[in-house]
Structures
1.
Amino acid sequence: MSRLPESLNELQTIFDRWSESIQHYKDMEKRIFYIGKEMPALLLNHRLFKKILTNIVKGQRYPDARQATMFTNEFILFINTKRLFSVRLYIYEPGQYTPVHDHNSWGVYGCVHNRIEVIRYRREDDETRPGYARLREIEGPVLQPGQTASVLPLNDGIHKAGNPAGKTSVMLCVYGTPIRRLYVNQYEHLQNRVSRLYPPRLRKKMLASQALDTMETN
Ligand SMILES: [Fe+2]
């Protein structure tokens, strides 16, 4: 995705600037630092977020609410053409949290509206038992509007995010280049379980392929 609608030129200018700058930083840490420094001004631009949210309500083409995403409360705002970063918006109802999960890239989480909590976990088992994972909760910063928190890829960034507040919250996330793994891990922390979560399109293909296999053996 490279061109946003003209009415959102201001947002396009920001993403263009990030695209230009981020390619000069080769390390993950420097990219996280750059985005963490850039994000607060955008997070506090509520006029711009109101435009984006109004577009969603009106069913405008941008952001495309029909685009298949891992989570149902997720809206893709931008994908850099070189896959150096993507920007996504999340809307959480009061008390709503994602499952505990990891990512295939680094991420910077920012609070736009109300409160966002990012709870981090450390994996403590040796990963030898399929489907089994033992996690320990390590910290849970609660972000106020304009504040950010970063997560690292894979086991270094196991977390859940959500809304500890009594009103709807809005979060903006920037993710880095994903590594080549087709799924993310999803954890049931209290049951010590881990399973693979595939992107919706791939999940549908896998289901159809499984159905075909059983039809052929019947
Ligand atoms: Fe996440």
2.
Amino acid sequence: MKKIVTLLIFALLGGLGSRVLNAQSGFCGTPAYKSEWLERYQQNPRVINRTMLDTLYVPMTIHIVGKDDGAGYISLNRLMDAFCQLNQNFEQAAIQFYIKGNIRYINNSNYYEHDYSSGSQMMAIHDVANTVNCYIVDSPAGNCGYYSPTQDALALSKGCLGPGDLTWAHEAGHYLSLPHTFFGWEDTQYNYNSNTPYAVTWSNITRPVEKVNGSNCSFAGDGFCDTPPDYLSGLWNCNNAGQSGQIQKDPDGVEFRSDGSLIMSYATNCQERFSDDQIGAMRANLEDERPGHIYNNQTPPAPVTSTTLTPVFPAEGEAVQNYEDFELQWEAVPGAQMYIVDISRISSFAFTVASYFTTSNSIMVNAGDLAPDKTYYWRIRPLNRYNGCTGYSDGHTFELTDLVSSTAARETVQGLRLFPNPAKENQEVALEFTSEKQGNGTVSILSLAGQILHSQPLALATGLNRSVLSTGNLPKGMYLVRIDANGGANYRKLLVQ
Ligand SMILES: [Zn+2]
């Protein structure tokens, strides 16, 4: 039986594309799918008491999808705001999602803007078992999001995870078995001027149309008796009463308006809740169908309350030499399990030059991401895996200097060059430069941190000078060669390989 159902779902998905293009305005691409499990459950649904619910902790894997070259990732800031809001939307159900493992990155332009076939392939390859897999892309088959019943995963558009957008909560509702409140009408345009039929058909499945009097609520529409009838399968705006402007007539001719507060409707501006019966079904779905998703033998950490950034390296205003990647470090924030780290040229952080995600209180910064001889601002957003709601710390600063260019103006010998450069281990390196006057100086080899490793005297003649420098015993790596002469210093990088 399971196999037949799977094939049927494939058929449903196959027919979905045109439906989405025609009627959905790109909101939700989840097929009009109701699981066998939910059909069975609704014959004997649980009754819940919202005040008596134990929190179910549900692991989630977040996949951030970019183009082939890694461009286009959702900003971590927006992602965490959306994750915060998702959990706020599910608090009423006492379901709390938490981020399991690291945030994963996938670079694939065919997934970044995908059709259902590529999306299905992406999920089949990258899904992590026993977690709610969420793929954040640019265009999930032209929708804001969808739940794939065949792959059991969510695809979400990064453009639909902004403030007040309920897309993630809506699709997570699908994941936990909920159909649309207008289930059955997915491909049917409601028309007030025609008599409402007693049944609607979507892709060869005929559903009874739900009546206002509740007489068929347990098997018509979405099968939940505490969600009133709703026939509106296109996006609509709520009126001041939180209902549809469109008046509908049930098959008996009784008029009603749709309830826009329900997250599983297609209302756009007043969704906020799941009904008791929907909550009962989502919790039962986790407990009955997805026991591997529940990790209740753990105590989540208290929400992070401090957002204080105490820099360890660089210290406030400290200068960092821009020769190689360096590690930003800060004092761990109590309760924080993850951090977002932003680096910006401006104190408002309106634009960032780099943004990092880390599960420790340090992060390697790619020197190549930052231009030298500039002041940078950095800040952290401490988070725990259960709560994305913490804000950012205040900004701190560091200077990034490039010793070679910053001292160029003080060069005291001219035309300094080293060859060969790169040099081999134990190879001698020739120095060549011109000096305006005669004198005594020093030539040194330094580590990038500025430690002198080798030093020898240097006699300067007026005009062209040539000298030889030994690299004996220097391990492979990048070094600085410094000439101290005529009251100043010249630097060049030397690579030993
Ligand atoms: Zn939907």
